[in-house]
Amino acid sequence: MPETTTVNSQFLNDVITGLKAEPKHLQSKYFYDEKGDVLFQQIMNSPEYYLTGCEMDIFTSQADALAETVRSGGEPFDLIELGAGDATKSIHLLKELLYKGADFTYMPIDISAHVIQLLNDELPAKLPGLKLEGLNGEYFEMLKKAASISNRRKVVLFLGSNIGNMPVNDAQEFLNEMRRHLSPGDMALVGVDLKKNPRIIRAAYDDKQGVTKQFNLNLLERINREFNADFDIDKFEHYCSYDPETGSCKSYLISTSEQTMTINDEQIFFKKDEYIWMEISQKYTVNQIDQMAANARFNTSDHLFDSKHWFMDAVLVAE
Ligand code: AVI
Questions:
Q1: Measuring from each residue's beta carbon to the nearest atom of ligand 1, which residues come in under 6 Å?
Q2: 41, 110, 278, 281: which to mutate for ligand 1, most atoms within 8 A of CB?
Q3: What's the CA angle centered on 260, arms 254 and 261, to 5 degrees?
Q4: What ipTM was reported for this prediction?
Q5: Do 225 and 86 belong together in one domain?
Q6: For residue 1, what pLDDT band results from cuts at 50, 70 and 90?
């Protein structure tokens, strides 16, 4: 079976299972089709969405310290980035490492073949001398592949608060799994959005221009486009909540009337005000992350903060 067919049928299964569940939910990893990518870029450029700017602040103003930390003793290593995207943040670290004459290979991992192709095409010209080995596929499968290619020390980048798009228990399991793919002394740099004034967080996920709303609705449009479904987009409104106690920021689409939609011969009924849970963007304290890292058998050797202390890149060393 061609890969796209397998991927599509997995997507369709996940959508139908999620819409038939109680409460209804969809998986936010499906936000990112071509239009979703564009909308996410717009979110990152919106005045309310502070996360990207904060992590960029860390990668630009502390590039030197970061490069020294990552280099450790100076032995050759592999720098593996999970979900590399266009590498806009990591490029600052790569530049600094090259400047310092570090011996490393950059291995971006991404589920999108297009992303890996772009990095292969564009990065070597931007960073002469860079050794690059792009890996297209699922994170942990590709981590295994990276280990089969070389047995050098590994430094894994998992930036952008991507860990926040998992419920806390799944995030813990993710760290455990990452640790199982690493050896003592290997390192992980994990980007985490920190708990802060609840209004600042809520505004980031409910921007005035309505881009986040479009971003959420685009998943319903994507389902219509790809599966010939018939969601009536105008009958859903976007709602976002943040609970300062748990640190969970959640996005929902709420049905504004009683309605039925059809997908693949399945009829899905919505009551008025029934919601679809679309996404979690979990916020943490520093202590929580240290504890989760310890549970996964990592030592937190450093915390790098932006100037406002809104975001953190935690440096974890495998025990
Ligand atoms: C990719 N991820 C870390 C973003 C976040 O902040 O949860 C996705 C996002 N969703 C709405 N705005 C941004």
A1: 43, 51, 160-162, 164-165, 205, 212, 215, 279, 281
A2: 281
A3: 90
A4: 0.99
A5: no
A6: very low
Per-residue CA distances from 87 to 64, 81, 90, 124, 160 (Å): 18, 9, 5, 13, 11
Residue 177 covered by a domain:
yes
Structural domain tally of the chain? 2
Domain limits for position 82: 62-194+288-318
For the CA atoms of 240, 244, 247, 252, what is the dihedral angle to 10 degrees? -10
Are 105 and 89 in a shared domain? yes
Q: Which atom of ligand 1 is nearest to the CA of 162?
A: 3
Residues 6+ apart with CB under 8 A from 265: none
pTM assigned to the model: 0.96
User: What does the pLDDT average to over 280-302?
Assistant: 98
Q: Are residues 6 and 43 in the same domain?
A: yes
- Mark whether 105 and 243 lie in a shared domain: no
Report the C-alpha gap between 182 and 177 in whole angstroms. 9
Query: Shortest CA distance to 317 belongs to which of 169, 183, 168?
Result: 183
Report the nearest atom of ligand 1 relative to the CA of 165: 7
Name which residue sits closest to atom 2 of ligand 1, judged by CA: 162
